[in-house]
Amino acid sequence: MAGQVLYSEIVTDHRERMLNLKKYYPFFKLSEVSFSWFQEGKYDNLDMGYILMAVLRFFIEENNFKERDVTYAKYAVFMEGCLRRDFGIVLDEENLRILVDYIFDKLKNDGKPFTFEYYDPAQKQKKMSRIKLLESRIEDGTVYYSISSDAIEFYLDTKEIKDESKITVEQLLLEKMIRSNNFSGGTQVIKRINEEVKRLWYRRDKVLDLLGSDVFAGVEEYRNFVDTGIKWFDEEQRLFVRNKELIEAALRRAKDAKIGGDAESFYKAGNEIYKLDTELKVAMNNHSELLKACTQLSVRADEIVRKAKVSRFKKSFDHRRMLEKLVSSGDPTMLIYLVKPLFAPNVRRSFDIAKVDDILSYRPDEKEKAESVSKAEQQQIVFKDEEDEKRMSSNFKTLIRIMLDMLAEKKEITLREFDERARQLIGRALETNGDYYVFLVHLAGQSEFLVKEIAAMTDDIIEIEAGHSEDIEFAPGAYVTDFTMRVKNGNQKS
Questions:
Q1: Closest to 229 measured CA to CA, from 306, 277, 323, 162
Q2: Which of 2, 255, 387, 447 is deepest in the core (most CB within 10 A)?
Q3: Is the pLDDT confidence value at 142 over 60?
Q4: Regarding predicted confidence, which is higher, 478 or 42?
Q5: Residues 457 and 404: beta-carbon distance below 8 Å
Q6: Could you read off the pLDDT of 285-303 as tens digits, one per residue?
Q7: What is the CA radius of gyration of the chain?
Q8: Is the pLDDT of residue 349 over 70?
Q9: With bands split at pLDDT 50, 70 and 90, how would you rate the model's confidence at 74?
């Protein structure tokens, strides 16, 4: 039994450990970037590791907290300010633009994903995993950049973001994973959310215990708990609801796949979605219970503080004991504290200050409004990602058909030849088609692939060899290095 556990720890679990490590790989790869060879080393004091962390935080702020798209112009403004503020870089506009462009190319890895190689002892072969820090999309001729889910997860592992709650940031990561259909990764994120909820429960109990033993220290800890633990509850609840809606939409798409005849895809994705949905329901329930407990803590804290204030004043005065103190002290001037109140009694009625706390802490019961249900027939909703998948599938099939026709004529073609043929057949619309660039980037990152898996057109394996240094510009600012494609098994179907 011990031998099986040891085997699982060393061999079976090795792949999972390597995949967990891959999110750190780009940071250390970029940390090796030296500016000593750029512009004759005059920017050698720049630290690429610090710059990377600053850019990731900038993208989290813009993409997730403020829900705004990031263009290159926005990034450039941020980076110019960062270079001036943190490194004292003062340059003219042209040289500053060149430096900012150089840094951005390094962060994007020149448009290619970072490749992380590792050995899989279970399958006894080397594996390659790819990771991107920044993702891009083209919309209406404008390129928008966003942070990847792996980059968000890496940033969370390095240090907790103090300006926002950890649950909020984890839910932003969860949303990104659901949209990218990474349901198993989303389940792990929800488990971390549950751990954070448990930690807040522990802090809440600690505050309550401290209030019972030391009011002053308890009040200080309570204020700190409010500022760092429960002030974001409304935002967290809103994100829970949004992610629940995304999961329900993913489940509907999986059921549609089953109805369409793709039962295997349904059972594979459906099982992961159900697990994710179950974990999210547990997290939402735990979070709601925590909210109730923190509300009770607020009321309890007010009661303890009020009692502590009242207990510091005596409700009765012992004249006999006071007289004994006067006699023992031999100081007749102390008689003024005994006699003066008797000559000036307060007969005016006043409002009890303690009642002010009761008014401020009063929380009326929130009554839920009945939801009005419309009998109108609901329209069929088509989601944006479904439209994108349908469009990309159609475009990819067209491009693969062109490739297969060329390979039927000639067993080996270059990327430039393929591009020329595609432009002849499709026309100028190809230049503004973002799917075309995505298709080429996907090919550039492969060594070989089965066309059957993409378009169900052939059983052949298309082998791709990158051996040319020439960069081909397919659209303004979009480059792909030339490569060669050939048929590995001559078994094509016309």
A1: 162
A2: 255
A3: yes
A4: 42
A5: yes
A6: 887 888 888 788 888 888 8
A7: 33
A8: no
A9: very high
The answer to whether residues 458 and 408 touch, using CB atoms and an 8 Å cutoff, is no
206 Cβ contact list (under 8 Å, min separation 6): 221
Could you tell me which residues come within 8 angstroms of residue 464 by beta carbon, excluding any fewer than 6 positions away?
Answer: 443, 444, 446, 447, 448, 449, 483, 484, 485
Q: How far apart are CA 300 and CA 207, in angstroms?
A: 11
Most confident of 36-40, 382-386, 447-451: 36-40
Parallel, antiparallel, or unpaired: how do β-strands 142-147 and 412-414 relate?
A: unpaired
Token pair of 211 as six digits:
């209030």
Q: Residue 492: how many CB atoms within 10 A of its CB?
A: 16
- The 3-class SS string of the chain reads CHHHHHHHHHHHCHHHHHHHHHHHHHHHHHHCCCCCCCHHHCCCCCCHHHHHHHHHHHHHHHHHHCCCCECHHHHHHHHHHHHHHHHCCCCCHHHHHHHHHHHHHHHCHHHCCEEEEEEECCCCEEEEEEECCEEEEEECCEEEEEECHHHHHHHHHHCCCCCCCHHHHHHHHHHHHHHCCCHHHHHHHHHHHHHHHHHHHHHHHHHHHHHHHCHHHHHHHHHHHHHHHHCCHHHHHHHHHHHHHHHHHHHHHHHHHHHCCCHHHHHHHHHHHHHHHHHHHHHHHHHHHHHHHHHHHHHHHHHHHHHHHHHCCCCCCCHHHHHHHHHHHCCHHHHHHHHHHHHCCCCCCCCCCHHHHHHHCCCCCCCCCCCCCCCCCCCCCCCHHHHHHHHHHHHHHHHHHHHHHHHHHCCEEEHHHHHHHHHHHHCHHHCCCHHHHHHHHHHHCCCEEEHHHHHCCCCCEEEEECCCCCEEEEECCEEEECCEEEECCCCCCC
d(CA 448, CA 143): 29
CA distances from 62 to 103, 250, 399 (A): 19, 26, 35
